[in-house]
Design goal:
The chain is about 40% helix and about 10% strand. It contains nine helices and six strands; from the N terminus they run ααβαβααββαβαβαα. It has helices spanning about 5-15, 20-35, 45-50, 90-100, 110-115, 140-155, 165-170, 190-195, 205-215; strands at about 40, 60-65, 120-125, 130, 160-165, 180-185. It is globular, with a radius of gyration of 17 Å. It starts with 6 loop residues before the first helix and ends in an 11-residue tail after the last helix. This is Uracil-DNA glycosylase.
């Protein structure tokens, strides 16, 4: 695994790359990609960072694991490649987007246009074995992505953090709430959404309202 990550992030994360845990993680990932089918493809592992430079980050959406079926994962949390059927959580994200902002349900589930506007779509674990959810958890990725969240919190101001579900909410302790905006809700997965913990959170309009209040350009959430 080559750490092909945008230079704007290297400035802040180089100390992490030198730590023993990260070197162990790189060795583990290289071996996994040689001996197993893993996702996303190696060149897409750091896509979240490469489509959203450090100085451009305005919003952070935290996911847990990449999708683990063929052709789905593209290195951005909740996002799938063009032409791939939308997973259930993404369907509910788009339904809420439709309810909140009146944006028509999109054809593509590729969230790259969000990333390109400053939305960091960060999974806590950046890789996974095919058809084995959670298979690369507790190998070092979480330590790295926690450091990413802490770095954003320390070095930036007025970032909107969207914490969806119990796992993401645990990251709240890494964020300085006196200088950032934290919006929380249930997870968009059917289990949570169908119990009333997701729909109606209006996180998309609330995010834009918060950005506008601090003089930032709001996010165009349309994907078409």
């Amino acid at each position: 695994m080559n750490v092909n990550i945008d230079q704007s992030w290297k400035t802040y994360l180089n100390p992490e790359f030198e730590k023993p845990y990260f070197k162990d993680l790189v060795a583990f990932i290289k071996h996994e990609y040689k001996t197993q089918i893993c996702f996303p493809k190696a060149s897409d592992i750091f896509n979240a960072f490469n489509h959203c430079a450090f100085n451009e980050v305005k919003v952070v959406i935290i996911g847990q694991d990449p999708y683990h079926d063929i052709g789905q994962a593209n290195g951005l949390s909740f996002s799938v490649n063009d032409g791939i059927k939308h997973p259930p959580s993404l369907v509910n994200i788009f339904k809420e987007l439709e309810q909140d902002l009146g944006i028509p349900y999109p054809i593509s589930g590729n969230l790259m246009p969000w990333a390109d506007q400053g939305v960091l779509l960060l999974n806590a674990t950046l890789t996974v074995r095919a058809h084995e959810a959670g298979s690369h958890q507790k190998k070092g990725w979480e330590q790295f992505t926690d450091a990413v969240i802490q770095t954003i919190s320390a070095e930036k101001t007025n970032v909107v953090f969207l914490l969806w579900g119990g796992f993401a909410k645990k990251k709240k302790k890494l964020i300085d709430s006196s200088k950032h905006i934290i919006l929380e809700s249930g997870h968009p997965s059917p289990l949570s959404a169908n119990r009333g913990y997701w729909f109606g959170n209006k996180h998309f309009s609330k995010t834009n309202s918060q950005l506008e209040q601090v003089g930032e350009i709001s996010i165009d959430w349309k994907l078409e």
